[in-house]
Amino acid sequence: MSRMLAALSDQTLELGPARSAGPEGNWRFAMDTDHVAWLVLDRPGKSVNTIDRSVIEELAGHVERIAERRPTALVIRSAKPSGFAAGADIQQFAGASTAEISAMLEEAHRVLDRLSQLPMRTIAVIHGHCLGAGLELALACDRRIAVPDASLGFPEVMLGLHPGLGGTYRATAIADPLEAMTMMLTGKPATAKKAKVVGLVDAVVEERHVRAAVQAAIRGELEPAGGSFKAQAFSLRPARALMASQMRRKAADKAPKAHYPAPYRLIDLWEEHGGNAKAMQAAEVRSFAELIETETAQNLVRVFFLREAMRGLKQGSSAISRVHVVGAGAMGGDIAAWAAREGFHVTLGDVANEPIGRAMKAATKMLTATLKDPLKIRDALDRLTPDPHGLGIRQADLVIEAAPERIDLKRTIYAAIEPQLKTGALLATNTSALPLEDLAEGLADPSRLVGLHFFNPVSRMQLVEIVRHDRISAETLRRATAFAVKLSRLPAPVSSAPGFLVNRALTPYMAEALIMVDEGIPKERIDRIAESFGMPMGPVELADQVGLDIALEVSASLRQRLDVPFPDSPAWLEKLVAEKKLGRKTGSGLYEYDSDGKPKKQRVEASPEDAKSDPDLLDRMILPMLNAVVACLREGVVEREDIADGAMIFGTGFAPFRGGPIHYARHRGIDEITAKLRALAEKHGPRFTPDAGWDRLKG
């Protein structure tokens, strides 16, 4: 059956005579009756094409054969339904020296240069994902035809790199150079329509019209869209220098040069060599080979593989297509909207109609911002149904409870829901702190209760903690994990313990910052020091973002349930909560907020130099977080170091370029960190006492 479905999906792609051609390694090659060569990338045993050394070496042989046979034209495309190619196989660079990487890149450049110099028309046909090295391969062709579902981009900056197979100079010469630079600097992909506007592709056609578009390109009727006018304008260095200075300022707002050198290297390349393709090509190879050996790139590549490892926790299908969400508050509404966005049929219930109305309005806003395509927005909204009477419960494969954090309320909800659940349906809770063992009491079948702890905002935070308890079934865990991956989220399996993993580690980080505020240290300075370390948001602002009431509640819960010293919350914090100054959601908390929800911060001189003048400030925030992660590993709350690192990166934004808290600790040195914790404990109290789990990390 699976082979038949694969064959049917393959039939939807126009592959010319290569459809019936046997594979020659990673490629299929055939000539049609019009003497047009079709070269189709189809890596055996893989659902997605990637570009590695074997692909390039085989391409070299095919290019030479084509040069000898002199066909009328050459068409290059992919046989994979998933897309053209997802980029370079980054594993091929593991352990290689700068010289070895340079040699690999130079050989690949020679092959793509040879392709670009073929005397016949060369045409890339693009569908699905066309990223990184895949897009660079397409750019070496004369013309690019995209189908509407194509997504083109240069994600290398996410790995601490820039394009390395000619993308820096081909993209800026072929397309609008400013748009091409923006794509490379941000890593954000472009739709087929946008790619046509900026000049990356020359035509966008439906799949059924691909053969006709190819024939038009061969006849010379498909003129390059190109950004040649702007490319000519920016061939002069003074023009590039002006724009380069603006690019550096924008880059500094998002990615400090000390931590993320790749964007600045790319800007330098374009400013210095943008008018000279050969010089820029040579500089690109040198720069890429040097960047890939930097600590930032090594750690960001590690983060890439952490993401893949977390996705790899999925085993089989979740067998979930219909979801019912109980509770239309901020979290419940967002969970429902995101599930609808990802293709699930969702019903959303609440005890009152007003929260459902607000949730539907917020869903429309989120879907519009993330999907952009009116048809996709309409389809997602069609899958999201207001359900004040809970009629969707009986049809749901999964019911997610997202009610307020009161155990009696949740148990009451379960008592009403469980008799309505169909055979095989799962019951999930989005609790962020309550013990699942307690929530399971009174259930007729506790084996199907699971924690699905999402993070706010659901549309941006990739992590979902999959929380187990002592009576959960293995099948429930498996299906919940598969559901999270199908939801385009990253699952982190954790046990039911105070705060689970992420809140357990994040709370002492925020708590210590509030103690510093109590000591009179300016909150802006505290936040800037944390941000200089690489955190996406300082702990004071984060407390406001979470909600001071929630932060106070979680701190109290951990203080009560953990068998370790935990700091008392300042009295003034309790006063703010009593006055309903809860942070961003009320417009006032530790900071005041403007109409756009942005904090009004005083200008305080703060930089990485602060940590040098008072190194305790940074360590007082970061080391308790690390200490808590180590405790979670020792206690079995999380079982693997890589999952712990991934959860903290994707759940808290822990500085990705540092590779995760445990990776950072190992790099810095376990002995150094434990010595620092002991010194802080002597100075500030037992809350800094090193956890016993540090000794295990030395083994």
UniProtKB/TrEMBL annotation:
Residues 588-613 are annotated as: Disordered. Residues 499-593 form the 3-hydroxyacyl-CoA dehydrogenase C-terminal domain. Residues 323-494 form the 3-hydroxyacyl-CoA dehydrogenase NAD binding domain. GO terms for biological process: fatty acid beta-oxidation. Pathway: Lipid metabolism; fatty acid beta-oxidation. InterPro entries: 3-OHacyl-CoA_DH_CS, 3-OHacyl-CoA_DH_NAD-bd, 3HC_DH_C, 6-PGluconate_DH-like_C_sf, ClpP/crotonase-like_dom_sf, Enoyl-CoA_hydra/iso, FA_oxidation_alpha_subunit, NAD(P)-bd_dom_sf. CDD domains: crotonase-like. In the central section; belongs to the 3-hydroxyacyl-CoA dehydrogenase family. In the N-terminal section; belongs to the enoyl-CoA hydratase/isomerase family. This is enoyl-CoA hydratase.
